[in-house]
Design brief:
The complex is a heterodimer of chains A (161) and B (147).
Chain A (H helix, E strand, L loop, with lengths): L5 H4 L5 E5 L6 H10 L10 H5 L17 H4 L22 E10 L10 E12 L7 E11 L5 E11 L2
Antiparallel strand pairs in A: 1-3, 2-5, 3-4, 4-5
Chain B lengths: L20 E4 L2 H10 L10 H6 L9 H16 L4 E9 L8 E14 L2 E12 L6 E9 L6
Antiparallel strand pairs in B: 1-3, 2-5, 3-4, 4-5
The chains are: A alpha+beta (161), B alpha+beta (147).
Chain lengths: 161, 147
Amino acid sequence: MTRLTPELLSWVGRQVTYHAPESLGAASFRYFALALQDDNPIYHDQDYATASRHGGVIAPPTLVCETNQIVQQKPNADGYIGHHWDLPIGNGRFIRGGNEYEFHQPVRPDDRVDVTWTLLDIYERPSKQKGSLVFVISEARYINQRGELLATNRETNVYAP
Amino acid sequence: MTELSQHFFEDVTVGDALPNLEFTTSLAALVMYAGATWDFHRYHYDPEFVKKVGMPAPFMDGQMLGALMSGMLMNWGGRDAFVRRLSYRQRSTVFEGDKIVLSGVVVGKSQEAGRSLAHISLNVTKDDGSPVSRDATASVELAMRNL
């Protein structure tokens, strides 16, 4: 029996936008790089970065694609505060399938980010080990306060039974 | 100030290997990334919680792999580099205690829309050789020596 109920499929095409209340700030770049043990000066050294083609410090590329702080909701029972489609799909295991990022321009400390998530597709694939897997494809578009496209992120998530 | 050596577009050759990046997934590293990304899901730090959902230990968020790959590419490209595209699929979960190794090789070069790009094939494995990533590829914009 298919897990693709009409109710689940009605989620395809849904869209939600979150607005950050403040700019990212240079400290967030340094924190992110520190967590990755990455001492590349382009993320924190103003003199070094000013002499570069970028003209100033820039964010680690995927920082803008982590938007939990933009959503501004209280932690759920699992501690999570970020974007989440509340899909009618049961309580099976959630598996990250992968990401496709495109970076249109470097992100700056004064960028204030809006992110729009669109649910692009839902499909089902059989799996010998795990039974029917449901694949959910979403796309996020990140723009700054001037409406400039910073990045897009197409994400695949898999829901096991 | 640490100066990174630049890799200029003209000097890069198909087949060039990038320096490997090794990363040890300590609980502290998971907590630092969770904090930096406001990701307070118990998956990343709560051993009791993850056992209840059938996982052996706290584990890395999938996007942390992308962050590590991007960082490796930016360090290789040097001061003026910028990652333009990155995609990967995840084959296995990286748990607390796992050591992972990221490697990359230049598989192509192109100039399009005024950008000088090196195309990189990436691979992430655990230190026992088991695969973490699948179909990982990226395009990095590099500086030109003669501009």
